[in-house]
């Protein structure tokens, strides 16, 4: 991993054109030559980047003429996509730091509270969706893929539950497809929908409620603790 702190500007050309004016930024260059540009503020997402597969050229320009209005940059990093004509060229006017680190092999992210665990706990604690609810099955098969949980509510009507760690609009659209399909089956209809997640974006909540779905926030630690309590003898 190469980490640079520099006054830099950038030009991206190809399928889209974008530019960054001169400012102090952090650049990450990974072992696969992918390059990401970050600013001090903002979210985790880089301002601009070039993903692998790509090639990188590290260019040290010749000194500028004495009469030039602006000094020559210290470096130019030119990253070209291997799959398209896209090019990201970063001009480093002044480099404050340029360090390389060997991070070694990464074991990957080990997640706690992933969707499978949430699905397991909610299936075991199905009355969280309403008193008198009963589980039909997890991974209920349909022609467009398995539903996370199929249940029956206290009124004897079927309920499709779509589970996400972080609920967004895509999850609501997925739930919509399941409900539309299953409501065509006279043996199942009416089929209701519940969108369940640890967090739900405001936009997803508005869309879900507009389509007649309930939103259910899942507290993973509480659900996990409920399971732990059920295993105690005293």
From TrEMBL:
Residues 2-107 form the Endonuclease NucS N-terminal PH-like domain. Belongs to the NucS endonuclease family. It comes from the Bacteria. The keyword Metal-binding does not apply. Cleaves both 3' and 5' ssDNA extremities of branched DNA structures. Its EC number is 3.1.-.-. Keywords: Cytoplasm, DNA-binding, Endonuclease, Hydrolase, Nuclease. The keyword Nuclease applies. This is Endonuclease NucS. GO terms for cellular component: cytoplasm. Residues 114-234 form the Endonuclease NucS C-terminal domain. It comes from Bifidobacterium erythrocebi. One of its GO terms (molecular function) is DNA binding. Pfam families: NucS_C (PF01939), NucS_N (PF21003). It is found in: Cytoplasm. It is an enzyme of class 3 (hydrolase). Its main location: cytoplasm.
């Amino acid at each position: 991993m190469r980490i640079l702190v520099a006054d830099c500007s950038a030009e991206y050309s190809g399928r889209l054109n974008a530019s960054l004016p001169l400012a102090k930024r952090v650049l990450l260059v990974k072992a696969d030559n992918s390059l990401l540009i970050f600013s001090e503020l903002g979210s985790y997402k880089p301002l601009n980047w070039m993903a692998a597969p790509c090639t990188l050229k590290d260019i040290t320009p010749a000194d500028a003429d004495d009469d030039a209005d602006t000094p020559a940059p210290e470096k130019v990093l030119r990253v070209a996509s291997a799959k398209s004509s896209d090019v990201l060229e970063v001009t480093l006017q002044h480099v404050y730091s340029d360090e390389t680190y060997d991070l070694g092999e990464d074991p990957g992210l080990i997640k706690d509270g992933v969707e499978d665990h949430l699905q397991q706990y909610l299936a075991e604690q199905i009355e969280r969706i309403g008193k008198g609810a009963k589980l039909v099955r997890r991974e209920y098969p349909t022609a467009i893929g398995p539903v996370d949980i199929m249940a029956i509510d206290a009124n004897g009507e079927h309920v499709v539950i779509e589970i996400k760690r972080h609920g967004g609009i895509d999850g609501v659209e997925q739930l919509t497809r399941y409900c539309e399909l299953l409501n065509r089956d006279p043996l199942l209809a009416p089929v209701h929908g519940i969108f369940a997640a640890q967090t739900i974006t405001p936009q997803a909540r508005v869309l879900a409620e507009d389509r007649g779905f309930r939103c259910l926030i899942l507290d993973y630690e509480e659900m996990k603790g409920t399971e732990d309590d059920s295993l105690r003898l005293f």
